[in-house]
């Protein structure tokens, strides 16, 4: 997690220094949030900061917008992510390379190259289509995401917290 604080001004370094007793309190709080789906309103507030991509940035497109969130919320979301990630990774196909640990475009290109070489060795035709889904993640609707999580048998509490 990055060190810049969110609106609650709770520093990640302070969270790292919690003793066993305070960690137990935090665990109970996270479990209550998980069970009820109620996230403290203060945690949901963010501060937005424009970071220039280049030294002489003047246009909006030359900046990156970042959101400074509560570190407590980030920690809770990281726990929630780890619970659901394992399930979703098992459900995704072997041809899914994006958003999977240890995989990416290089592995995908290697697999594609191997596949094409095998087809050529067997004198089979190969037809390829590449589709660039620019900003694809930004275009996924909430309803579609919830439907897919239901189909994947993700626990209702986790879906509610998402």
Automatic annotation (TrEMBL):
One of its GO terms (biological process) is DNA biosynthetic process. It holds the Pfam family RVT_1. Signal peptide: none annotated. Residues 32-162 form the Reverse transcriptase domain. This is Reverse transcriptase domain-containing protein. It comes from Diabrotica balteata (Banded cucumber beetle).
């Amino acid at each position: 997690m990055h060190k810049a604080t969110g609106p609650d001004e709770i520093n990640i370094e302070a969270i790292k220094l919690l003793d066993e007793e305070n960690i137990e309190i935090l665990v109970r709080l996270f479990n209550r949030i998980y069970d009820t789906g109620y996230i403290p309103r203060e945690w949901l507030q963010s501060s937005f900061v424009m970071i220039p991509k280049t030294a002489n940035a003047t246009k909006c497109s030359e900046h990156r917008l970042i959101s400074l969130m509560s570190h407590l919320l980030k920690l809770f979301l990281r726990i929630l992510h780890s619970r659901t990630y394992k399930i979703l990774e098992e459900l995704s196909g072997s041809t899914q390379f994006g958003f999977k640990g240890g995989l990416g475009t290089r592995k995908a290109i290697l697999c594609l190259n191997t596949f094409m070489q095998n087809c050529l060795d067997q004198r089979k035709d190969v037809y390829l289509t590449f589709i660039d889904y620019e900003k694809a993640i930004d275009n996924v609707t909430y309803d579609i995401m919830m439907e897919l999580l239901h189909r994947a048998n993700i626990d209702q509490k986790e879906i509610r917290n998402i």
